[in-house]
Design goal:
Elements: H1 6-21, H2 37-60, H3 65-72, H4 76-88, E1 92-96, E2 110-114, H5 116-122, H6 127-140, H7 143-167, H8 174-184, E3 189-193, E4 200-205, H9 211-216, H10 219-232, E5 237-240, E6 249-254, H11 258-264
Antiparallel strand pairs: 1-2, 3-4, 4-6, 5-6
Helix pairs in contact: 1-5, 2-4, 3-4, 6-7, 7-8, 7-10
C-alpha cells in the first residue's frame, strides 16, 4: 500500500473536519492571539459560514457568486473569499455553467460546484464495499444483467414511497412531488420548468449518495431513469448525471396533457 503524501493528508483532514464537525477547513485563519479566545471565535465563525456556502452548493447544484450571496444573505465579496478557501481545499471547483437549449450571447456564467472530495465530506459512504458487492454479483451471479436486476430491485423498493407521493397529487404536480420524495432520501432534488423551446420540466438531483459506485455500474442510473418514467407515466430523458462528471443529475420530463396522463399513468410508453 502506498504511503500518504503531505498533500493527501491535508485534503483528508479537510474532509474529516467537514464531515465530523459540520465545518470546513480554515486555511491560514486559525492563528491564536495571546488569550486565544477572540481569534478562535473568529475562526469558528468563518468555518461555519464556509460550511454554509458548501452546503448551499450541495443543495442547489453549481452556483454563481451572486446566487450564493442571495441565498445566504452575504455580500458577493464575502462569498468570493469563502470560495477562494474552498477552492484551495479542493472542496469546490470553478466551471462554466452548462446551457441546455439555445445559448445566449456573451460568455457563459462561471459557477462553483462541489468536487468529489467536497461531496465525500458530506457523505459517510461505503462506496468500496458497495462496488465490491456489485462486482461479486457480476462475476458469480450472471454478469452485468445480474447487476441490472439488482439495480431495478433496489430502486423499486425505494420507489414505494415515491409512488405514494405522486399518486396524492395531480398530473401537473407530479415532478415536484417526486423531487420532494427524493430529497427525503438525500438526493437534494428540485423540479423546475425546462428552458425554452422545450415544453416540460427538469428534475434536478443535486446530490447522489451512490455517485461513485454508479461511475462503475451505470445500471444504477439506468434503473432510476426507468422507474421515473414508470412513476410519472411518460417517457423521460436523462440529460446529465453526477456519475458522469456533471454537476447535477438532470432528467427532462416532457409536458403531458391530463387526458394522456390518465391513460399512461403507471407505465412507460414506447
Amino acid at each position: 500500500m502506498q504511503g500518504t503524501t503531505h498533500a493527501d493528508q491535508g485534503r483528508l483532514s479537510g474532509r474529516e473536519e467537514l464531515r465530523n464537525n459540520g465545518v470546513v477547513k480554515n486555511v491560514g485563519e486559525a492563528r491564536e492571539t495571546p488569550t486565544g479566545t477572540p481569534q478562535e471565535e473568529l475562526a469558528t465563525g468563518e468555518r461555519s459560514t464556509r460550511n454554509r456556502v458548501a452546503r448551499s452548493i450541495l443543495d442547489h447544484g453549481p452556483s454563481t457568486v451572486a446566487e450564493l450571496a442571495g441565498r445566504l444573505g452575504l455580500t458577493q465579496a464575502a462569498v468570493r473569499r469563502h470560495l477562494d478557501a474552498l477552492l484551495a481545499d479542493d472542496v469546490v471547483e470553478a466551471r462554466e455553467r452548462r446551457v441546455y437549449g439555445a445559448r445566449t450571447r456573451g460568455r457563459p456564467a462561471k459557477v462553483f460546484a462541489l468536487t468529489d472530495c467536497g461531496r465525500d465530506a458530506f457523505d459517510q459512504s461505503y462506496d468500496k464495499l458497495a462496488a465490491d458487492a456489485l462486482r461479486w454479483i457480476a462475476e458469480r451471479e450472471g454478469g452485468q444483467e445480474a447487476v441490472a436486476a439488482f439495480a431495478r430491485a433496489r430502486i423499486a423498493a425505494q420507489a414505494r414511497a415515491y409512488r405514494k407521493a405522486i399518486e396524492a397529487v395531480g398530473p401537473d404536480e407530479r415532478a415536484g412531488a417526486l423531487a420532494k420524495a427524493l430529497s427525503a432520501d438525500g438526493y437534494a432534488a428540485t423540479a423546475r420548468s425546462a428552458p425554452l423551446p422545450h415544453k416540460g420540466e427538469q428534475l434536478c438531483q443535486h446530490h447522489c449518495p451512490v455517485a461513485h459506485v454508479a461511475e462503475q455500474f451505470p445500471q444504477l442510473c439506468e434503473a432510476e431513469t426507468e422507474i421515473f418514467a414508470e412513476l410519472l407515466g411518460t417517457h423521460v430523458q436523462r440529460l446529465a448525471t453526477i456519475a458522469h462528471g456533471d454537476g447535477v443529475c438532470t432528467t427532462f420530463i416532457p409536458q403531458i396533457s391530463t387526458d394522456a396522463s390518465a391513460s399512461t399513468a403507471g407505465r412507460n410508453p414506447a
